[in-house]
Design goal:
Largest sheet: 7 strands, mixed
CATH class of the largest domain: Alpha Beta
Family: Belongs to the bacterial solute-binding protein 1 family.
Number of helices: 19
Number of domains: 2
Main location: other
Protein name: Carbohydrate ABC transporter substrate-binding protein (CUT1 family)
Keywords: Signal, Transport
Number of strands: 12
CATH architecture of the largest domain: 3-Layer(aba) Sandwich
Strand content: 5-15%
Distance between the termini: 59 Å
Pfam family, one: SBP_bac_8
Length: 453
């Protein structure tokens, strides 16, 4: 039986093991001589599907034993970085666009283009734009095959929406602007209820004593804002940088971005969203939605199953509001499977990556109902599975269908960018500084790339 998760060694024992054995990468075989491919991922909800993919793969490749390990998000990146430093990282791991640039710049992942070309992988089978997320900074090389995609939508408490006079169809028609917030802000006001039962759009509303916030959030969003402010800024004709991937001039000083953040912050001032201190107090957004403290959230499609199965509350999802551009918008993120450059078995690792990027595996994941696979035909089936489970998957797929996606920004210095933008956005949202202060933060970001004014 293939192990699906192995307990990590305590740090002291792990260090001792490395001291005694040196680099452990030359021992990745089973007792019966099969090649071991270690595969790491962070999402526990996807484990059953990928276990099935591994079983199918091993049936066709009896010389390989795939061992899957899953860690929580924060532990995942810490352990992965430590493994690379110790030259004992997993052969294959799930990669994220925010981390990809760093791995490429440090030479820590393999260029898969020779493998892709030799195998004749059809890159056109994937949703448009996903394969190009993994191209190298000089426009050559491919460092992963697309495995899935995600967009964001508005998850909302259906009972509270009905009580406020909104139907599911109404929520598909919402629009926003940075001047008065449009019908979207009207919706948030109607969904906000103070401790006396007065709604945010009614006389006598007490913004300082709110029982149910119209919308929740988890943090200020740093320089990405995927489930915070991105849907608004991107639908206001704003772009992250001069190009993507590998932008070198960022646009956090753009007046369209500044006015978007000013409007978003005003929702806190009006009592429709909690303060930053309350939002980051330790209670998760989905927990607050389940408890009735938040009436709605902007969240990713990857959380559809978790939110759908919340106890004590019925939820549904609507697409992001139409902005001043005349269109709605969503970050279009996707994950890939990368091969560690130090893998002692790169050819076998590629065979596993090729399987993960194939219809054989992505059809399995479509049936799991937890992700939207990258292959177009598998996406179509995943939408059906979501709908059968009661989630309006069209709210996510509408961005793909209408071409209103914006690919997730990729940069070799995203960690440094975040170290600038996270405190800058925190300061704005906590009313320590004004949105115009983002211009100074943007200068510091562009200085990272040698492109300051």
């Amino acid at each position: 039986m293939r192990p699906t998760r192995r307990a990590a060694l305590p740090a002291a024992l792990a260090a001792l093991a490395l001291t005694v054995t040196g680099c452990a990468t030359d021992a990745r075989t089973t007792g019966d001589g099969r090649t071991v491919i270690q595969y790491w991922m962070w999402d526990s909800t996807q484990m059953p599907g990928y276990n099935q993919c591994a079983e199918d793969f091993e049936a066709d490749n009896p010389d390989i034993d795939v061992q899957i390990e899953q860690y929580g998000w924060d532990d995942y990146w810490t352990k992965l970085t430590a493994g690379m430093v110790a030259e004992n990282a997993p052969d294959v791991f799930v990669d994220h666009s925010a981390q990809f640039g760093k791995f490429v710049s440090l030479g820590q992942i393999l260029d898969l283009e020779p493998y892709i070309d030799e195998a004749g992988v059809d890159l056109d089978q994937y949703q448009e734009g996903l394969a190009d997320l993994w191209i190298g900074p000089d426009g050559t090389g491919r460092y992963g095959l697309p495995k899935d995609w995600d967009t964001v939508g508005i998850y909302y408490n259906t009972e509270l929406a009905e009580a406020a006079g909104y139907s599911a169809e109404d929520l598909w028609e919402l629009e926003w602007n940075p001047d008065d917030g449009g019908t979207f802000e009207e919706f948030l006001a109607a969904m906000t209820i103070d401790e006396n039962g007065v709604r945010g759009n009614e006389p006598g509303f007490d913004k300082d004593n709110v029982d149910v916030y119209g919308m929740g959030y988890n943090e200020a969003g740093g320089g990405y804002g995927q489930v915070q402010w991105s849907a608004y800024a991107l639908s206001n004709d704003w772009t992250y940088a001069d190009q993507n991937p590998w932008g070198t001039r960022f646009n956090y000083d753009d007046p369209r971005f500044v006015e978007t953040i000013a409007w978003w912050r005003s929702l806190v001032e009006k009592g429709y969203m909690p303060s930053l201190a309350a939002a980051t107090s330790g209670v998760g957004t989905t927990d607050a939605l389940a408890a009735g403290g938040y009436a709605s959230l902007i969240e990713g499609s990857w959380n559809a199953r978790t939110i759908r199965e919340l106890g004590g509350v019925e939820t549904q999802v609507a697409p992001t509001p139409v902005g001043p551009s005349g269109q709605r918008a969503s970050v279009f993120n996707g994950l890939s499977d990368a091969i560690w450059s130090g893998s002692p078995n790169p050819d076998e690792a590629w065979r596993w990556v090729e399987h993960l990027g194939s219809a054989d595996c992505q059809d399995v994941m479509a049936e799991s109902g937890v992700i939207f696979p990258a292959i177009t035909t598998a996406t179509d089936r995943a939408v059906e599975v979501y709908e059968e489970a009661g989630t309006d998957a069209a709210a996510f797929a509408v961005h793909v269908r209408e071409g209103t996606t914006v690919t997730s920004p990729v940069s070799a210095r995203w960690a440094e960018l975040t170290s600038v933008m996270a405190p800058a956005m925190d300061a704005v949202l906590s009313f320590q500084t004004e949105p115009e202060s983002l211009a100074r933060a943007n200068e510091r970001v562009n200085a990272l790339f040698g492109s300051e004014e």
